[in-house]
Design the sequence.
């Protein structure tokens, strides 16, 4: 059972980065909203925790695929939020990752169906 | 399960993450913002229950961060057993007794009249690194008496 959980964990790590770039490609988001979006849009199949999300965001930011900024929505709350946005380099990265993922997914699907 | 306040929760998470100051600063900013957001939506948001206990969250960060926590250059802490006690009795606002050990890099700090910790500051200080009137430690800096592996007596 433990080895099965390990497989899911490792597999998830690889695709979470793709999911995050997808969300940021749609619009700028803050941490809590990314977590909620991943859970909701995956129909609870992917549960993203803070200790997984933020290290991924830091790696993406260090690689200049995304950047962060603080924004205060003065209409709704007084405290600033830390938003993340995708960069041009990040969009290229997302496009590459998506293509790779679809290729691999198609290949695996064919094997599993054969 | 503790009813954590934001400040103590984040502090406890960071105390259990073996990473440099830059990374910890980023984590602190993000956790602050994240918890504020959750509390804005639900004023009774139970941080520990919803996000997990600090040790669990710290372990998750450590698993996913690109840091090698085995590369600790120096460890001079007192004990790897995690324990903290702070007396209610204080003297000029300083705890009479503060014991604080077991940091991830053996770096928990105790400050008190009697201080016992990985790093300790006190009138009587005992620790891996101890600063005090009477200091006992692996590295000890004392004013009147010192006992330690590396000692430095002031006066």
Sequence:
């Amino acid at each position: 059972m433990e080895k099965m959980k390990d497989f899911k964990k490792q597999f998830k790590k690889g695709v979470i980065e793709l999911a995050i770039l997808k969300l940021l490609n749609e619009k700028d988001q803050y941490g809590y909203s990314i977590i909620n979006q991943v859970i909701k849009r995956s129909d609870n199949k992917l549960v993203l925790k803070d200790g997984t999300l933020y290290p991924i965001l830091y790696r993406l930011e260090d690689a200049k695929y995304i950047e962060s900024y603080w924004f205060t929505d003065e209409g709704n709350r007084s405290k600033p939020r830390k938003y993340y946005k995708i960069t041009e380099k990040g969009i290229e990265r997302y496009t590459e990752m998506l293509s790779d993922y679809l290729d691999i997914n198609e290949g695996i699907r064919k094997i599993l169906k054969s | 399960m503790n009813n954590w306040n934001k400040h103590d929760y984040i502090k406890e998470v960071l105390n259990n993450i073996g990473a440099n100051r830059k990374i910890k600063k980023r984590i602190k900013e993000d956790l602050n913002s994240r918890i504020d957001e959750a509390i804005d939506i639900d004023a009774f948001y139970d941080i520990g229950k919803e996000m997990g206990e600090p040790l669990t969250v710290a372990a998750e960060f450590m698993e996913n961060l690109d840091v090698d926590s085995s590369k600790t250059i120096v460890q001079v802490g007192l004990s790897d057993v995690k324990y903290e006690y702070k007396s209610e009795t204080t003297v000029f606002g300083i705890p009479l007794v503060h014991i604080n050990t077991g940091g991830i890099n053996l770096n928990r700090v105790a400050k008190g009249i009697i201080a016992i910790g990985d790093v300790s500051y006190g009138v009587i200080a005992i620790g891996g690194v101890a600063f005090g009137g009477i200091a006992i430690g692996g590295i000890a800096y004392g004013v009147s008496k010192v006992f330690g592996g590396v000692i430095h007596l002031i006066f």
